[in-house]
């Protein structure tokens, strides 16, 4: 019977093109608006590290001002000091661990036609690729020694390798970065998590690094990070060495703890770590550290902010108005066809089949609304990409799942909208429509 | 075939102006052609609606094919309507959006027949009323008489044993009316029981038996029937 | 003349449809009211005076390709060159305000204090800093060439003079005179004398709670993170930007140069607020449109249903305007019901938004002006079908079927 109902629905929609178009438009606009914001929220809530959600932990240590906690929900600085990061790296408890920060500079190729250009860089310890499961296309990471001593080695992203070397295996070649020659040791597949869960300090949805440099280069290059540096204490900084030894926090730290035992031991280790430093007169606040897995980290950093969530609520309210609108129009449309329903009843249709027939008609309106709603969502996302001026490029896009959800949402809404009108018409006494007035 | 015992029907809605049936009793035998007459508002339509299972009586018993329909739910009543009863209305009540073919298809769909079976029956029904060539036309493209013939074809396609006609010729001129009437008589001869509501005494007389409803009750039952048959002969 | 009773009884028969329209209008009022108060807040935020000549300023950043590059020498040479360029009013090397990136410090009015600092943005620049940003000096003096130190962050250098914004001066020395007083960095006893006060500067983060607090130090810092801040003569900005790009590359090809206008950077900073404004406005507009469509659809339907009745009324002597008036009055009743629902819903909605998302409170006046607009839209949406209804011929009454 479904097929019959669908063909009846088509006929009925063609019969009242304007009213039908109004309803399809109402559903489409409602779906378009809510799917635009829901897509944004969905994309913003993604967790690129979901696969390792049980074993990766962002490390926070509370070395902050004794008089005032760090101003964030965790009341601990997001980042660590350089000296604590260096000390933590010595622990052998985590399976992998990474100390890192954002940097950048001009990159050039000796004897190349290519004009020098600026790239985003990440200065990191060698485990970065293993910890975040980033596969190498060529070569591999730098040796352990490079995390402590200056070694002019560099790992390129696939895109950078494409740009500089036309995609060929560049391991062993030399590039000029920030004025110094670096030897390429590896090329990784492009890794662009969005949101940038591994570093949420500067722009959650911006692009990730294009080159990676060893953590042992700080002294040699006097690297000041391209990220946030926060301090609370007034310190005499008379040299780069003072900067490295200061209470400034600017290093992000992740540890991989595969087993509960490792977790237990690492907690003990961190407790001891802070106690030791308290004994030296540092860490003036009550002993506190944080180990957050990627999903907790995303929540803590409020990647989906109040504005985004407010827009989602608003657009659901919008959809509700569109639904009420659709109910009113469907009711009008169905009641206009009450005589036909009366004839069908006389010819043997049960109340239930009249109900189903009209519900199917609502569903068809929903399907059409969903299709147009997808188009409106794409337009809405494009507008948002443009309005956000690059802040949203990686999240304002739709995948298949969201497209299917759009259609699902549209059909569900229109079925909901159709329930009352369909019930109403299936309950109408047929005999009053059969007599010629 | 049809047996009504002490049927009572009263309306409380202010929008519909229909008189109640009071202590209404009637029996129609298999194969009969019964006409129902009566003044406006006497309860003819209410009788037809109850007979056609479109409405339920307030009280009383109604046996259709020896089955007490008072106890049936909407679904079973719809099924019975679909399988046993055919309707013909004064206003034809064809669905304007559907072609003749699709109009006749409606009751067959609700019976859940297979596509091939439906097609066969529709074509046969159209042939019976002489409109095979116009299967694809919309009702609006037909004259009143043709529309009523389609409505009859639609009623016949389900091969009902019981045909209810409400002023079937009311909207037609006399030539068309005669044609429709002849069609009904033809159908009756093939065994279908017909109950026809009319206010036209000439038509009423052509039935086997005439029932008059006055003020919600059957008036002068036995006598009318005998004389009507006699006059036709 | 008001035929209220028959309208009410007719509406009662269509109560569900009428209620649906009223609910739609109510929800729309709740959404539009709350959206407009947010829009208003964001627009006011963006419209705040920045204290800086946003439309005339061009910024240029460079990164040397060569190692051991003498950045301070490059700053001096470039600034000399830039100041000679046609159309340039003033130029300095500093961090660019209003871009979302910068530096913040805590200031005290007494030496050796650890707690109770006033948070403020900090800038460094040479003697053209105030002029290049086009800030208005309201007290004291500007920096002179002799005030300027060339140094770096790791040198341990401390400023001895500063210019502050009026707002910061007010926060530091509540009510009192700030000029000539000293401020201190946390836990230090090095006095920094306030030599000048500028009217306003929103600083690096205009949406931060401490926006408007800014302190300027007379120094050129040797670091990657500085831009040339160049103020063009009015109307010359784009020409200066183009010239700047050319000349900087020409002056020293061993570097990557990025030239931007301040306007573009400020727009990018406000992109989030701007997105909110645009999205909320479209939501409000679309919603009103949808509701209007719904009203048109239903009015047309009702009129079609009552075509015969209207014909009969006309035949019985009703004038055209009486017919139109009937439908307008009917709509008015529905709309007023909807608006009553909406005023209540708007308050509930606002309570939720205010407690959950820190949105501003919704004043009754905003709700009422939105209500008036919706009422107008609702009546306009009824007008077209109502006028058409008035054209229904009285002959309809005599036509059967």
From TrEMBL, chain A:
<dbReference type="InterPro" id="IPR050250">
    <property type="entry name" value="Macrolide_Exporter_MacB"/>
</dbReference>
<keyword id="KW-1003">Cell membrane</keyword>
<dbReference type="InterPro" id="IPR025857">
    <property type="entry name" value="MacB_PCD"/>
</dbReference>
<feature type="transmembrane region" description="Helical">
    <location>
        <begin position="310"/>
        <end position="335"/>
    </location>
</feature>
<dbReference type="Pfam" id="PF12704">
    <property type="entry name" value="MacB_PCD"/>
</dbReference>
<keyword id="KW-0472">Membrane</keyword>
<feature type="transmembrane region" description="Helical">
    <location>
        <begin position="400"/>
        <end position="423"/>
    </location>
</feature>
<protein>
    <submittedName>
        <fullName>ABC transporter permease</fullName>
    </submittedName>
</protein>
<feature type="domain" description="MacB-like periplasmic core">
    <location>
        <begin position="20"/>
        <end position="270"/>
    </location>
</feature>
<feature type="transmembrane region" description="Helical">
    <location>
        <begin position="364"/>
        <end position="388"/>
    </location>
</feature>
<keyword id="KW-0812">Transmembrane</keyword>
<dbReference type="InterPro" id="IPR003838">
    <property type="entry name" value="ABC3_permease_C"/>
</dbReference>
<dbReference type="Pfam" id="PF02687">
    <property type="entry name" value="FtsX"/>
</dbReference>
<feature type="domain" description="ABC3 transporter permease C-terminal">
    <location>
        <begin position="314"/>
        <end position="430"/>
    </location>
</feature>
<keyword id="KW-1133">Transmembrane helix</keyword>
TrEMBL record, chain B:
<feature type="domain" description="ABC transporter">
    <location>
        <begin position="2"/>
        <end position="232"/>
    </location>
</feature>
<keyword id="KW-0813">Transport</keyword>
<dbReference type="InterPro" id="IPR003593">
    <property type="entry name" value="AAA+_ATPase"/>
</dbReference>
<dbReference type="GO" id="GO:0005524">
    <property type="term" value="F:ATP binding"/>
</dbReference>
<dbReference type="InterPro" id="IPR027417">
    <property type="entry name" value="P-loop_NTPase"/>
</dbReference>
<keyword id="KW-0547">Nucleotide-binding</keyword>
<dbReference type="InterPro" id="IPR003439">
    <property type="entry name" value="ABC_transporter-like_ATP-bd"/>
</dbReference>
<dbReference type="InterPro" id="IPR017871">
    <property type="entry name" value="ABC_transporter-like_CS"/>
</dbReference>
<dbReference type="InterPro" id="IPR017911">
    <property type="entry name" value="MacB-like_ATP-bd"/>
</dbReference>
<protein>
    <submittedName>
        <fullName>ABC transporter ATP-binding protein</fullName>
    </submittedName>
</protein>
<dbReference type="Pfam" id="PF00005">
    <property type="entry name" value="ABC_tran"/>
</dbReference>
<dbReference type="InterPro" id="IPR015854">
    <property type="entry name" value="ABC_transpr_LolD-like"/>
</dbReference>
<keyword id="KW-0067">ATP-binding</keyword>
From TrEMBL, chain C:
<dbReference type="Pfam" id="PF12704">
    <property type="entry name" value="MacB_PCD"/>
</dbReference>
<keyword id="KW-0812">Transmembrane</keyword>
<dbReference type="InterPro" id="IPR025857">
    <property type="entry name" value="MacB_PCD"/>
</dbReference>
<dbReference type="InterPro" id="IPR003838">
    <property type="entry name" value="ABC3_permease_C"/>
</dbReference>
<dbReference type="Pfam" id="PF02687">
    <property type="entry name" value="FtsX"/>
</dbReference>
<protein>
    <submittedName>
        <fullName>ABC transporter permease</fullName>
    </submittedName>
</protein>
<keyword id="KW-0472">Membrane</keyword>
<feature type="transmembrane region" description="Helical">
    <location>
        <begin position="326"/>
        <end position="349"/>
    </location>
</feature>
<feature type="transmembrane region" description="Helical">
    <location>
        <begin position="361"/>
        <end position="384"/>
    </location>
</feature>
<feature type="domain" description="MacB-like periplasmic core">
    <location>
        <begin position="74"/>
        <end position="245"/>
    </location>
</feature>
<feature type="domain" description="ABC3 transporter permease C-terminal">
    <location>
        <begin position="282"/>
        <end position="394"/>
    </location>
</feature>
<keyword id="KW-1133">Transmembrane helix</keyword>
<dbReference type="InterPro" id="IPR050250">
    <property type="entry name" value="Macrolide_Exporter_MacB"/>
</dbReference>
<keyword id="KW-1003">Cell membrane</keyword>
<feature type="transmembrane region" description="Helical">
    <location>
        <begin position="283"/>
        <end position="305"/>
    </location>
</feature>
